TrEMBL record, chains A, B:
<keyword id="KW-0489">Methyltransferase</keyword>
<keyword id="KW-0808">Transferase</keyword>
<dbReference type="InterPro" id="IPR014776">
    <property type="entry name" value="4pyrrole_Mease_sub2"/>
</dbReference>
<protein>
    <recommendedName>
        <fullName>diphthine methyl ester synthase</fullName>
        <ecNumber>2.1.1.314</ecNumber>
    </recommendedName>
</protein>
<keyword id="KW-0488">Methylation</keyword>
<keyword id="KW-0949">S-adenosyl-L-methionine</keyword>
<comment type="similarity">
    <text>In the N-terminal section; belongs to the precorrin methyltransferase family.</text>
</comment>
<dbReference type="InterPro" id="IPR014777">
    <property type="entry name" value="4pyrrole_Mease_sub1"/>
</dbReference>
<dbReference type="Pfam" id="PF00590">
    <property type="entry name" value="TP_methylase"/>
</dbReference>
<dbReference type="GO" id="GO:0017183">
    <property type="term" value="P:protein histidyl modification to diphthamide"/>
</dbReference>
<dbReference type="InterPro" id="IPR000878">
    <property type="entry name" value="4pyrrol_Mease"/>
</dbReference>
<dbReference type="GO" id="GO:0141133">
    <property type="term" value="F:diphthine methyl ester synthase activity"/>
</dbReference>
<dbReference type="GO" id="GO:0032259">
    <property type="term" value="P:methylation"/>
</dbReference>
<comment type="similarity">
    <text>Belongs to the diphthine synthase family.</text>
</comment>
<dbReference type="InterPro" id="IPR035996">
    <property type="entry name" value="4pyrrol_Methylase_sf"/>
</dbReference>
<comment type="subunit">
    <text>Homodimer.</text>
</comment>
<dbReference type="InterPro" id="IPR004551">
    <property type="entry name" value="Dphthn_synthase"/>
</dbReference>
Length: 203, 203
């Protein structure tokens, strides 16, 4: 609604209290374009409607739970659903920029909730598509052909949404390695890569 | 206490519920080194004490209130008090990295609350220094010597703590300019610089 009916939301907001509830922080919301809330605040401002922002926890800081330090994260990246006509690949350059500076990247995986098909949108039919989440089955294949003692194949399904992904940068601190190790499927391998590839000073 | 008495905090935590309350998010707390909470969680883990993290709003996302998009921020930087023996200037390189990619920088300004002097710490005297905040008087001098019609000098005192600073990167979006304009002391100048120096497509 916020994207298509902001006039309705602001209707009468000069005389009554109107709240807009979001998931996460109003400015760090992954479910709608980041500019949507800025836009509605700008409209309110132009109509001289006073506004107040109440902040909340968000994936943009809660990602610290994975053990990587917030200070070592570069820009956050959104990975969006591709359509037939829209395949934005700028996420790759953004991640590359972070990687080049040794910084971690939070990758937010797109969701499509209460979306109309282009046809329904054009015809003004309030029929919504079933919710979709970037939540594919993923299979990581390591050292394939290296013999059964070396090969490792891990299939992962992440369960209910929401999901995000963190790519660790080279500026990895040994405390980050220690902390995040608890989440590693293969702890020994996690530490080995941190040591050998990332150059972390681990015991 | 959390930095010096974590053993005390964890004492009995295996048999009773112990909470550690912080300002902001547990992992995005500016008042203590970012590693302190990771460290106490690692100790709890090694003692097999179960832990649970409850996230909260933090300056690391609430900064979105200034109108710059969270997605356009690079790494967050801390600007700490210099001492006679410790003058870390790495913040400069970090800001430079963000600037080189056109990203905004959140600069967290150091605070010293409940700090002991080195002497009191060494002698085990629980005497604490008065709280200090990076909160200097700042005077911005622009076009000095350019004649009274061009010169502009702005003195600013930010009032009660806490404070942080945002440095805008070149990847500035016109909606960011529009939104943040409301906070500009000189709106006209704000838009002019966004247009001429940052190359923003403004009307």
């Amino acid at each position: 609604m916020v994207e298509t009916q902001s006039d309705e939301i602001l209707h009468n907001a000069d005389t009554e209290d109107v709240s807009l509830l979001v998931v996460g922080d109003p400015f760090g919301c992954a479910s709608i374009p980041a500019t949507t809330h800025t836009d509605i605040l700008l409209r309110a401002r132009s109509l001289r409607i006073p506004t107040r922002i109440i902040h909340n926890a968000s994936i943009m800081n809660a990602m610290g739970a994975c053990g990587l330090q917030l200070y070592n994260f570069g820009q956050t990246v959104s990975l969006v659903f591709f359509t037939d006509t829209w395949k934005p690949d700028s996420f790759y350059d953004r991640i590359k920029e972070n990687v080049s500076l040794g910084m971690h990247t939070l990758v937010l995986l797109d969701i499509k909730v209460k979306e109309q098909s282009e046809e329904n949108l054009a015809r003004g039919r309030k029929i919504y598509e079933p919710p979709r989440y970037i939540n594919t089955l993923a299979i990581a294949l390591s050292r394939v052909g290296g013999g059964p003692e070396n090969e490792r194949i891990v299939a992962e399904k992440f369960g209910e949404p929401l999901h995000s992904l963190v790519i660790a940068g080279k500026r990895l601190h040994h405390l980050e390695v220690d902390y995040a190790e608890a989440f590693a499927i293969d702890r020994e391998n996690w530490r080995r890569v941190a040591k050998e590839v990332y150059g972390c000073a681990l015991e």
